[in-house]
C-alpha cells in the first residue's frame, strides 16, 4: 500500500515513520509513506500555498493550484488513488473505516491548514474524514492517526504475537483485561483463572470480561456487535451485576 500525504509540513511525518510497527512495515516494503510537499507545486518565488478568503473573514485558505498539481503528479505514479481530505465535518474515523481503507492500493491524504482548503479541491476527493468533534490546527495529526491504524491492518504487518484478533473493536467489542508477571503486585493479584492453564476456561473468562467491559464503557457497541448464544447468556449475568463465577455456577461448565 502506498500513501501520498499532501502537506505544507512534510517534516511533520519524520518521527511517525521512524518508530515501531509503522517503521517495520516501511522497511519490509509493505507500505510506503510518501509526503508530497505542496510548496514544490507552486510557481512564484515565495512558494505561496495560501491566500485570502473571498467574501472576507479571518484567516487564509490553501490555494487550489498546488493541490491539483500535486494530484496530477501522483496520477503519473498511481492510476487510481483513493483521495481523502481531513475535515472536522467529515465521516468519523473508526475501525470499520480503517478496515475499508486497508483494502485500497494507493491513498492520498490532503491535509488542510489555516481555515481549510478552497472548496473546489473537493472535486478530486472521494471522502472527507474527521478524527473527532474537535478542531486541530492542521490535518497532519489526523493523517498520522489514520495511517497508523490502517497500516496495522495490512496483512502480515503485525506479527502473530501482536495479532489483530484480540484488539478492541476487531469483533465489535472492547478487548479483555491483560496481566503480566508478577502474579501479585502491591497486594493486587492476577485473576486465578489466568494462572489455571485451563484454556477453555481462560477463553470463556476473556469473553465474559470483553462483554462486561463493553457493557460498562461502550454499551452502544453491543447493539451492533455480532453475538453468539453463549455471549447472550453471559450478558444476562452481566446485566444482573453477576460475575464470572456466578455465570460458571449457573452454566455448570469447567
Ligand atoms: N475553519 C475550519 C477549521 C480549520 S482547522 C472550521 O471551521 O471547521 C484546519 C485544518 O485542520 C482543517 O482544514 C482540517 O484539514 C484539519 N482538521 C481540523 N480538525 C480536524 C478533525 N477533527 N479531523 C480531521 N481534520 C481536522
TrEMBL record:
Task: Report keywords, A-Z.
Answer: Cytoplasm, Methyltransferase, S-adenosyl-L-methionine, Transferase, tRNA processing
| Protein task | Specifically methylates guanosine-37 in various tRNAs.
Q: Does the keyword S-adenosyl-L-methionine apply?
A: yes
- Give the top-rank taxon of the lineage listed in the UniProt record for this protein: Bacteria
Known CDD domains for this protein? TrmD-like
Binding-site positions, S-adenosyl-L-methionine: 112, 131-136
Q: Where in the cell is it found?
A: Cytoplasm
Q: Which catalytic reaction applies to this protein?
A: guanosine(37) in tRNA + S-adenosyl-L-methionine = N(1)-methylguanosine(37) in tRNA + S-adenosyl-L-homocysteine + H(+)
What does UniProt give as GO cellular component?
cytosol
Pfam families for this protein: tRNA_m1G_MT
Per the record, the gene is trmD
| Transferase as UniProt keyword | yes
| Organism in which the protein naturally occurs | Sulfurihydrogenibium azorense (strain DSM 15241 / OCM 825 / Az-Fu1)
**Broad class of where this protein is predominantly found:** cytoplasm
A GO MF term: tRNA (guanine(37)-N1)-methyltransferase activity
Task: Tell me how this protein assembles.
Answer: Homodimer.
Task: Identify its protein family.
Answer: Belongs to the RNA methyltransferase TrmD family.
- Annotated ranges, domain tRNA methyltransferase TRMD/TRM10-type: 1-224
Q: Which GO terms describe its biological process?
A: tRNA N1-guanine methylation
Name assigned to this protein: tRNA (guanine-N(1)-)-methyltransferase
Amino acid at each position: 500500500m502506498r500513501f501520498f500525504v499532501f502537506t505544507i509540513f512534510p517534516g511533520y511525518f519524520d518521527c511517525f515513520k521512524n518508530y515501531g510497527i509503522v517503521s517495520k512495515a516501511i522497511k519490509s516494503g509493505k507500505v510506503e509513506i510518501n509526503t508530497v510537499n505542496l510548496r514544490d507545486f507552486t510557481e512564484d518565488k515565495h512558494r505561496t500555498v495560501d491566500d485570502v478568503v473571498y467574501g472576507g473573514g479571518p484567516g487564509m485558505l490553501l490555494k487550489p493550484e498546488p493541490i491539483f498539481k500535486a494530484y496530477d503528479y501522483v496520477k503519473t505514479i498511481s492510476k487510481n488513488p483513493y483521495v481523502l481530505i481531513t475535515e472536522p465535518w467529515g465521516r468519523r474515523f473508526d475501525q470499520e473505516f480503517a478496515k475499508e481503507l486497508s483494502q485500497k492500493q494507493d491513498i492520498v491524504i490532503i491535509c488542510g491548514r489555516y481555515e481549510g482548503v478552497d472548496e473546489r479541491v473537493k472535486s478530486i476527493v472521494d471522502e472527507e474524514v474527521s478524527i473527532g468533534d474537535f478542531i486541530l490546527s492542521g490535518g497532519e495529526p489526523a493523517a498520522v492517526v489514520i495511517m497508523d491504524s490502517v497500516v496495522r491492518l495490512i496483512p502480515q504487518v503485525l506479527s502473530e504475537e501482536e495479532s489483530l484478533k484480540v484488539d478492541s473493536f476487531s469483533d465489535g467489542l472492547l478487548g479483555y483485561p491483560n496481566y503480566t508477571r508478577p502474579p501479585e503486585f502491591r497486594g493486587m493479584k492476577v485473576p486465578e483463572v489466568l494462572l489455571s492453564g485451563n484454556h477453555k476456561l481462560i477463553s470463556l473468562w476473556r469473553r465474559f470480561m470483553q462483554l462486561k467491559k463493553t457493557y460498562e464503557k461502550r454499551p452502544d457497541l453491543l447493539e451492533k456487535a455480532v453475538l453468539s448464544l453463549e455471549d447472550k447468556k453471559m450478558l444476562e449475568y452481566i446485566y444482573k451485576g453477576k460475575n464470572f463465577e456466578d455465570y460458571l455456577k449457573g452454566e455448570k461448565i469447567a
